[in-house]
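Course assignment 3, question 2. Fill in each field.
Student: A.L.
Task: Predict the tertiary structure for the chain below.
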Amino acid sequence: MDTVARGTLINLATRLLGVGLVLALTALTARISTEAQGAFALFTSVEGVLLALWSGFGVALARRVSHHREQPRALVAATVLACAVLGLLAGLLLWAVSNWGPPAYRWLWMLALGAPVLLLAPNLAGLWLGEGRMAPMARLTVAPQALALLLVLLCMALMPLQLPAVLGSWVLAKVVVGLAALAVLWRGARLAAPDFGALQRELPFIATIGLTNLISLLNYRVGLFVIERLLGLSATGVYSIAIVVAELLWFVSGSLTQAAYSRIGTPDRAQSAATTVRVVQLSMAALLLAAPLLWLSARALVPWVLGPAYAASLQPMAVLLPGALLFGAASALSAYFTNHAGLPQVPAQVAATSLLINAGLALLLVPALGMTGAALAAALAYGASVLLLAWRFARHAGLPLAQVLRPGAQLLADLRGVASRHGGRT
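Answer field:
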């Protein structure tokens, strides 16, 4: 797995840099006030809903490249136009929510202005994902956060930082990077006359992927929305820090899955299943080491960097981390069904089950336990969904469930390989 290991390192470094930039933005926003952090968390969560709903375009492009071995230039052009139109319609809805929705969402008019371009970069990245080219994806991943932070720092140099400056910088950075990604494909002759027939044939797959990712995102964020409704914007800001820190674990598992994505997409079922199992087990081994270190680091740094008010995020964070650790296995299992098997409805069904568990438990536990109740609901839902998805994978791949979940000789060999490569460089 040398290529996968190299791609994983690129992805992990990129994601760590990206999350470092986001954490810097979060720290600057959190220091404005807990209410400002809550509004920022809701703003980016709504943006995430928009991106998740239409993320199927990028996955469809990745599958045409990795599974079908195509260079779908006409499909790419049709995808660009579809993303622009859908973004425009989404912008109109965001504008309406901003004007007539709850006060916590009043800043969504900024997101509405950039919506026609916001879908471009995440979906066009599917081309490089399908090719297994991690360097272009790395640049596309880091650029929005880096530009947003630069714009925020420029604002701080001119005046005291306020929430509108953070949100405006965030949206402007996303728009610039989206247009830049489109320009790169145009100059690289990777666009042709739009083939809307090809796009129409992909629509069932795209819609299923979008629904799956939307349900998955809501599964991650439902506790945040419940807290805003029941406990207020300030508690939302505090709890959002627990979410941000716990989800750092997924950068490790996500990096492994992304690097192996093209191999998981191979038409050979045995090879795809074997790669998936290796990624699942490597992810779990890495997260078992990372989770305690992450908790200890957060305990020391969060109150110091963000302020004493955010110390209240540490208890729900501790409850959330075990569930986030288990959920790290889900990315590779989902990739198997979407990229190899062409069955995105399987992770969609599992994600829907998890969302129902999460939402139901959150509504039950938050009034009694506050933020810790939301964290407990999420952790239980994550654990249940991973077990269900692993069982579905084992049945489809014709493997014993124990072989999927229990570390074996291959994991030891992979870990020895990582250690030997690291030792050879020191």
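Instructor remarks: Residues 36 and 199 are 41 Å apart (CA to CA). Residues 412-416, 418-426 have pLDDT under 50 and may be disordered.
Grade: pending
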